[in-house]
Amino acid sequence: MDAFLGTERNPLQVAVVGSGPSGFYAAEALLKSGQAVRVDMIERLPAPYGLVRYGVAPDHPKLKEAILAYQVIAQLPHFSLLANVNVGRDIEVDELRAHYHAIVFACGAEADRRLGVPGEDLAGSHTATEFVAWYNGHPDYRERSFDLSAEVAVVIGQGNVAADVCRILAKSVDELRATDIAQHALDALAASRVREIHLIGRRGPAQAKFTNKELKELGELACCDTQVDPRDLALNAESLAELQSKANYISAKNVEILRDLAARALGGRPRRLLFRFLESPLELVGAGRLEELVLVRNRLEGSPFQQSAHSTGETARLRCGLLFRSIGYAGVPIPGCPFDARQGIFPTRDGRLVDATDAVIPGLYAAGWIKRGPSGIIGTNRADSVATVKSLLADVPSLPSGAKAGSAGLAPLLAQRAVRAVSLDDWRVIDAHEVARGEPLGKPREKFTRVAEMLGCLDGGAVSQR
Amino acid sequence: MTTIVTDNCNGCRFTDCVTVCPVACFHADETMLYIDNNVCIQCSACIPLCPVHAIYADDDIPEDQAHWIEINAERSQALPVVTEKQDALPGAEARKAALGY
Hints:
The complex is a heterodimer. Chain A is of the alpha/beta class. Chain A has helices at residues 21-31, 50-54, 61-64, 66-74, 93-99, 128-135, 160-170, 173-176, 183-190, 212-218, 237-244, 249-263, 369-372, 380-395, 407-416, 424-438, 451-456; strands at 12-17, 37-43, 79-83, 102-105, 111-112, 125-127, 152-156, 196-200, 224-228, 271-276, 279-285, 292-301, 308-319, 322-325, 329-330, 348-349, 352-354, 360-366. In chain A, strand 16 (348-349) and strand 17 form a beta hairpin. Residues 462-466 of chain A have low confidence and may be disordered. Chain B has a single domain (3-99), classed as Alpha-Beta Plaits (2-Layer Sandwich), CATH 3.30.70.20. Chain B has two helices and four strands. The chains are: A alpha/beta, B alpha+beta. The A-B interface holds A 21, 62-63, 65-66, 68-69, 211-213, 246-247, 249-250, 253, 376-383, 386 and B 1, 19-24, 41-48, 51, 53, 57-58, 60, 84, 100-101. Chain B: One of its GO terms (molecular function) is 4 iron, 4 sulfur cluster binding.
């Protein structure tokens, strides 16, 4: 008979799928649990850190310092990285289950939500996800191109990702040059002719989801004036009631920031950002590519904190050649896991995956955006992952206690399938190459934007230092 | 850039904030929490979590709370890190109500 699970003679073998914030916080909670645990973090790209590397905007280097905390977690005893391994393609979920007592899916929300309006797929209409991943050098988006020759661009959404896209469009390349933005993006942005950016949200200023800091930043751009229509700040009684709630001080501060912007004169800067509220896209129009956006005016209905946008039927047209939608994200299914297609998440109860009959699937867990949907910021995922790991640890006495091989069990499968797993030491080699490439450019790093380039740093590969 | 814990935390110490800190920059004594700005990444995840709005960043820091910048800097160096939710201090709920939250 095997020793008790979670003891040194029979350590709990856990696979964490995904290496973004929620994956690292899950790994940390497991490795600091006091039980004997081995954590193998499995990442489909050769580079770890998920949305901190590929989502956080390059002009927010301070936020990217979350990586310093992940480097500390990665140093904990019994942590291993298996990057460049794609669960569902290189390794089946059932194969993971054979070699691990538990699997925590922390694979985020990679797909975008659709507007569901005609013309959405016209050339010139994009998701914010694509643009963000592209300027951050994500290998999946390396070959995308964005025609930035239009003078008028539209960003649909009222959250921090929409704010990021606006900033990248609004800043001059000189403001971005010393960041870790991908060189291909910097080159394309240098030729940008975008002069006017319309940031459009379906609800009002009191419901916008920006953090105060991100909103304030949009009013402090060096090369871009910010315009807020004072009429949009004539709030309905329900919105005023929302703002009077003392606990709603973030929204109150947002409205205060917008009032300051509305009262400010334009400064003659070469670009202009226009905040537009209570409007929804109805149709994207153009002969082969986006030429015009049809918008409908909304009004809010419902009681305070329950208000939703409803069409008034009053339409407006806006000539534009470029549109990014940032209206939420959805997870991507993995064969062998249940999936809630409507919400774009893995269905869970207290972090445990449940099947179509709502029964718990033993040993399978989820954390972060794939569990609760794309809400909150980096740190929100820490509380979320800690909660999932609490459920996992509570289940240990009831998990099948037979010894599991962990990564030693995966190694022959990966070898047989010619998958070159990237370890933590391997990643440090790639990382050092990126930092060295950035140095002559005055950048913190120049990312490799192709998987082959990253792998070329390893095994005596032929990628040059510079 | 600076994010600090101010007077409202004193006597409450709800610690909701520490559960969402991505980098473990909160330190505690027996009365309240303090932020180590050498570690804080200024993400502001903690700010909306505070039930009594004790946490402020940069130019939102009220003038009459500005002295807390130095206190956070000093105390955070001397005290242990707190990363997990703890019970609020006795009397925290009453203080919260008295503060109008």
